[in-house]
Predict the 3D structure of the following.
Amino acid sequence: MTISPLRGELTIPGDKSISHRCVMFGALAKGTTRVENFLQGADCLSTISCFQSMGISIENNTSRILVHGKGLHGLTAPKSVLDCGNSGTTTRLISGILAAQPFSSRLTGDDSIKKRPMGRIITPLIEMGANITSESGNGCAPLYIRGQNLKGISYCSPVASAQVKSAVLLAGLYAEGITTVTEPYLSRNHTELMLGGFGAKVECNGSTAALTPPKELFAQEIFVPGDISSAAYFLTAAALIPGSELLIKNVGINPTRDGILRVYRDMGADITLLNKRTSSGEPVADILVRGGTFHGTTIRGSIIPALIDELPIIAVAACFAEGETVISDAAELKVKESNRIAVMTEGLAAMGADVTETEDGMIIKGGRPLKSAFIDSCLDHRIAMSFSIAGLLCGDMPHIKGRDCVNISYPDFYKDLKRLMS
Ligand code: S3P
């Protein structure tokens, strides 16, 4: 396989985090929320189907959806267990909403979801008065939730997690009094921005968000920006292939999500943001990236939540950089759709990289030539896409088991990859 420069333009699909929230907040708002550029990935479709099971009518016309909200108190009891599929965002955020409904519900998902920690949301929700149990007693789904009257709390989260923060704030929509969440570092703030847009009062100060329960939420018109987490794959490829010049259009560059741009610039990438604007309350730009060379760096501390989903592809980039890259403070990677520290270390080592797994990250010495290997994606979309780009960069595509899992967040990934490679 020859390695040709990536040239031209690319429009990547809508942001996954924002798409989920459009459905959830739209369902709880009065009136019809119209969403353009909605991500038709399996995770967001799981969120749609959960709310349809609770009596919300949602019209899905490919990239546009209409959510016919029934107000804060309009959900009805689901007739069967709510299936969250592979989606941690669906499971955790919905739990916050269900904790306050006048009915009981059960939540489950696939094998990966049944291993992911839910204690992190169960603990604060119980403090608010919720009645939630992990049916298998291991702190994971399936969850049984019996709706209760809740009270606002001030919660200091031990992890910087937008899913935890959002679950607590969503429960706070129904609680008596103000609900406050403080995180060790600020995680993505789409919930705070979007709930504000839907009419709730959310005050933010550093890594603290405080929600005053609103009387109602009101339907919105939303254009979902392209997902920087999906842009990350082609951004990486173009930045590392000499002669590339790729314009990635309409990408969300929210400062709580743009860590990859900061790190890549620090590693020497040639990245220019064009046409910066605000779209539905979110900062957006077109990203122009030109091929060049990278050098190693250190990634740790407060920037980690702003690039947590991009660390697998950043680890790939580090293999092609000159010198050493150290990633630390990223233990959260172990509890994603797979253990991303272990799976990336194993796969990159199989391809020939010099990579060492640590307690909370990886150490990568760049510059060793990579070659094809057998990679198990563990049905983790970000693993499958990261190793596809590793293959593109070394000119020797790995065999990726479970490669179709990219449909979780980027259904057309291989189509775009093929187009850009030809
Ligand atoms: C998300 C938050 C992050 C991220 C996930 C989406 C969200 O998870 O990894 O892909 O939409 O709130 P954590 O909150 O567990 O860090």
